[in-house]
Amino acid sequence: MLSLRLYSVAFICTTFVVALLLAVYPLPLELRWWRPEFVLIMTIYWISLIPSRTSLAFLCLLGLFQDLLEGVPFGQHGLGLVIVAYICLLSYQRVRNYSIWQQSCWIFVLVGIAQLTDNWVQAMGGRPLSGIVFLYPAFASACIWPVLYLALNSLRIRYRVL
Amino acid sequence: MIALIFVGLYTNWLTPVRQQLSVLTVPFYRVTDVPRRINEWLGTTFASRQDLLQENETLKTELLIHQRKLQQMAALAAENVRLRQLMNATDILQDSVLVAELIGVSPNPLNHTVVINRGSREGAYEGQPVLDAFGLMGQVIEASEHSSRVLLIADSTHAIPVQVNRNGVRAIAEGTGDLNRLRLRHVSNTTDIREGDLLVSSGLGNRFPVGYPVAEVESIVRDPGQAFAEIIARPMARLNRSRHVLLVFDSRSHNP
């Protein structure tokens, strides 16, 4: 029983490490705004699937690590991640029953919220942003959600993580 | 979490923590750098003989040109030293450099920082100027053991004192957040500055060494209604292309 639990925790951690790698993978300058928020998507996925396996404290640390990785002020991603995780915890029972396109729209809203807090912190740090450009990552995330959802589902069933 | 954000933004209590923990982030950048390495390896391994010969030829020509310039340079440097001695001015010290390679770029589009593969163990320190082959690139803002983070001059939180190479007019070049634009702040409408002028680092502020090219003036808008002219300059360094950079050890301000 214990080994089974360890196994699934290891699986979840691996997906997060992959998400962090994708989050810092160098992109050409023109595409930089279109990078989906992989860590956030992964969080939403695992929370809506197995809410008992993900803790807010772990997500806090994950967010702080992402800040360290990207060299932005401590707490920028952590804040967004925790807020989104909390909303997810409140609503996962309903979202589970949505069709995949409706889920995509929901992802757009959630990532949009995280982007808002992100840019709030960035603006305080002296990098203000104007325009709608900050919602591009949310749009990209919504577009990639169906693909990631199906891929993760098949992986999860194949490796029997519950 | 919000308290942490404020502490991180307005104090520097977290800087040592960050420096220590940065070691953890290096493997991530190394891994994401692997595809490029493979690409480079493929490029060098499977290059055709013809291409190599051609490259060799161009490099030889280039070397010849540079050597000719260097010959002249030696004479000029000697003359410069003599003239400075005549004027009782202090000698310009030669700066030593360390070659570093880019291993990562900040994923945040607003944040123009890059990660290089030299850290405090190799002598990099906070505030150290970074150059590429064409001009000044930025400065080290975080030096961990084997990697450091470099803030580029085009970042919107960065400013650098410059002077016009032609007549020595001083100004401050501020980043705009756009990699191809710097803005000159508080230059009055009557200042003698033209499009195409080369801006070099002035060395004021004791952060950057004197005389490295920073930017070229691209456009000037002199609006009589405004207090200052709106001057846009284009950085000389290839901020989004250069892979190899030089860390300069400024011999005046820092003794490693």
Describe this structure in words.
- The complex is a heterodimer of chains A (162) and B (256).
- By secondary structure, chain A is mainly alpha-helical.
- Chain A has one domain.
- Chain A is 73% helix and 0% strand.
- Chain A is built from six helices and no strands.
- Chain A has helices at 2-24, 38-49, 56-70, 76-95, 100-124, 136-158.
- In chain A, helix 1 packs antiparallel against helix 2.
- Chain B has 256 residues and is of the alpha+beta class.
- Chain B folds into three domains: 2-44 and 93-153 and 241-249, Rod shape-determining protein MreC, domain 1 (Thrombin, subunit H), CATH 2.40.10.340; 47-86; 159-235, Beta Barrel (Thrombin, subunit H), CATH 2.40.10.350.
- Helix content of chain B is 29%, strand content 28%.
- Chain B has four helices and twelve strands.
- Chain B has helices spanning 2-10, 15-21, 26-45, 49-86, and strands at 96-105, 113-116, 129-131, 136-143, 148-152, 159-164, 170-175, 182-185, 198-201, 213-221, 230-235, 244-249.
- In chain B, the strands form two sheets. A six-stranded antiparallel β-barrel of chain B has the order 1-2-5-4-3-12. A six-stranded antiparallel barrel of chain B has the order 6-7-8-11-10-9.
- Chain B is globular, with a radius of gyration of 21 Å.
- The mean pLDDT of chain B is 85.
- Chains A and B meet through helix 1, helix 3, helix 4 and helix 5 of A and helix 1 and helix 3 of B.
